Amino acid sequence: MKKVIFILIIVIAIALISACSESTSYENEDAPRIHFTDSSVRSTLYTEVDSRIRIFYVDFFEKYKDTLNAMFDYEWTLLSIEEIYIPIEIVGMRYWTRSAPLPDGYIKAPEQFTEWTIEYHDGNGEIRHFVLNNHRNFSNQIIQYVTSHISEYYAEKFLENCETGVLVNSVHGIVLRSDFADSQRDYALREYIRLLATPEGAINLSSLTPANVFELVPLYLSFQLNLGYYTGYCRQLYEEIYEEIISEHLERVDSIMEAMNYFANNHLNAKVSVISHIENEGVRHHGGWRYIQGDRIDAEIYPQALFESYRGVLWE
Asked: Domain locations in the chain?
C-alpha cells in the first residue's frame, strides 16, 4: 500500500512539473503577460487536439490610460471592448510567414486577446477611430496606426486617378527605426520608440493631421512610379519620341511632388523612384525624388540624413 501511495505521489509531482514547464515568459516588460487555461471558447476552426488557449490578460487600457489622455488631450470616447479569438490554425499561419525563429519556450495554441476601440477628433476636427489591443507592443501599434493612415491619405489624395499617365506602386509610410550601425543614433531611436508609450513621449493624435505629420513624427513616404510599359509593337515610334514622352511624365511627377510638399506645409519627407519598362530591355530608371523637411536633396543615405533633420527636435 505504501508503495502504491509513493508511486502516486511521484506521478503527481511529474505532472505538476510538466504543467509548470509549459508556461511562457517574456523578457520585454511591455510584452503582454499570458497564461494557459482550459478553453471556454469554441470555434468552427478550433482543434480538439490541444485544449489549451493562450490568453493575453494585461489591461492595456488601464496600463496606458495616462498615455491615451496625452494622445487625445483627454477628449476621447471608449466605443467598445471586444475579446478576439484566434484559432490555432491561424496562429500557426502567422508564425509560418515569419523569418525569425519562434520565441524560446513557445507552445503553439489558440490565442485570445482584448481590443479597445477609441473615438477621437484629429487636428482637422474629423472623427477617427484608434483600435488598441493587448496582443502587440503598444509603441508599435501607434507607429502602425500613424503610418497606415498617412500613406493611405497621400495615395488617395495625390496619386489615385491623378491622370498623370503613371502607375503607382504601393505607398508606404515608414517611421525611422533603430537599425543604425551608429550606436548614438540607434539609442536615440530606441528611446524615441520606447517613449511613445509614455505621456511624456506620446504623439498627440488630436493635433496631428496629414499636413503636419512630418513636423511631429520622423516619418517619410516611400513609393515607386512606373511611367509605362513600351512594347515592340510600337518600338520604332517610341524610339523616336520616347525621351519626349518620359520628359512629359517626369514634369507631371514633379508637379505631384510639389503639390505634396505644399500641402505638407513645405515639410514633406518622401523617397520616390521612377522607372519605365521597355520590352526585351527590362527596367529603365529615371532617377527619383528625395525630400527631407520640404527640401529636395541628393542624399545617398536617406535614413541618416532624415535622422539628422530631427536632431534637436525629437532627439539630441
From this structure: 26-136, 138-316
Instruction: Note the pLDDT tens digit of each residue in 6-34.
Output: 333 333 333 333 333 333 323 344 544 44
The angle, 0 to 180 degrees and rounded to 10, between the axes of the packed helices 183-195 and 138-154 is 90
Q: How far apart are CA 91 and CA 77, in angstroms?
A: 31
Full DSSP string of 148-191? HHHHHHHIIIIITT--SS-EEPPPEEEE--S--SSHHHHHHHHH
Single-letter amino acid code for the residue at 62: E
Cα angle 10, 12, 13 (rounded to 5 degrees) comes to: 65
**Which of 241, 225, 228 minimizes the C-alpha distance to 289?**
225
Angle 110-111-115 from CA coordinates, rounded to 5°: 150
pTM: 0.77
* Cell 505644399, located at residue: 262
Give the tens place of pLDDT for each residue, 33-51.
444 443 333 333 333 334 5
DSSP 3-state of 95 = helix
List the grid coordinates of 292.
527631407
